[in-house]
Design goal:
CATH class: Mainly Beta
Number of strands: 8
CATH topology: Elongation Factor Tu (Ef-tu), domain 3
CATH architecture: Beta Barrel
CATH superfamily: Translation factors
Strand order of the largest sheet: 1-6-4-3-7-8
Largest sheet: 6 strands, antiparallel, barrel
Strand content: over 45%
Organism: Patiriisocius marinus
Structural class: mainly beta
Helix content: under 10%
Shape: globular
Protein name: Elongation factor Tu
Number of domains: 1
Number of helices: 0
Length: 102
């Protein structure tokens, strides 16, 4: 069962800087990489708030949910940065806005 773990701000890279070539839809399954304390990648579902899709280069606020039986990080905090990937392609960056209580 999925539960929302945090609200995040995501900036998708524009096409001209090797970002996605087409829009990305809400409820997309992506990977987030946190570099603190060591780089770790997690599978997540990203649900955009107030929009159904984002174009390359756009900024969105999202509810971010960890998927499956991953060992979840317990040291996340508001203001923490992360990188966004689609499979192995680096498509954006983000910041945690608010940690959700479980």
């Amino acid at each position: 069962m999925e539960t929302t773990n945090f609200k995040g701000s995501i900036q998708f890279f524009p096409r001209k800087t090797d970002g996605r070539q087409i829009e990305i839809h809400t409820e997309s399954r992506l990977k987030l990489a946190f570099s603190e304390p060591v780089e770790t990648t997690y599978n997540v579902v990203v649900n955009f708030i107030d929009v159904a899709l984002a174009l390359p280069g756009e900024h969105v606020v999202s509810q971010i949910t960890f998927e499956g039986n991953q060992t979840l990080p317990n040291d996340l905090y508001a203001g923490m940065s992360f990188e966004v990937f689609e499979l192995t392609k680096h498509i954006g960056k983000g910041t945690i806005i608010e940690i959700k209580a479980e």
